[in-house]
Design a protein that fits this description.
Helix 3 runs antiparallel to helix 4 and helix 8 packs across helix 9. The protein is 82% helix and 0% strand. The C terminus is likely disordered. The chain has 10 helices and no strands. By secondary structure, the chain is an all-alpha fold.
Length: 191
Amino acid sequence: FMKECDIYEHDIHVLISDLKSGQESAFDYLFVTRYKELCRFARAFVGSYEAAEDIVQDVFIKIWENNLRISNGVSLDSYLYVAVRNGCVSYIRRVKPSEGLEVIAEREVEETLLEDWKFVWDAVEELPERCRLVLKLVVLEDMKYAEVAERLDISINTVKGQMKIAYRELRKKFSTGQLVLLYGLFRLNRY
């Protein structure tokens, strides 16, 4: 499994191919690396971590039972986030069917946020590997620099340097308003 993890970590196309063909190691890797982030994302929609876990588990069950069905050119993470968002909408409709037009309007706003989130996520995924990993641990996992340094077996100064690079690269891609959105989306995803 560790050999496959190294391959998947460095080549998303191999991961997608193996998911499409039903490779258990690919599924395990996907679950281990994406589950917590997807649960946080779902919780922002449904308000309950237990319901969020159920929704994310349903997405993984569908992937496991039907193999991955993803179009060429679609990012794997975008696919997962859209699937989880759709699961959240279905859950809310099932649990709270009487909320009516007010909820529909809120969902439209959330769909716009999801499109923005995809844009942000794609930009983060384009960062150099080390920057991306450090940024995700600090921002999404809410780890302190010292914790990241210990986990990755690097110095705190390296963590600081990687964060500087990550933020500099993201500033090049976003306007000030988009950076505020980026900050808000990361904060939203942390709970």
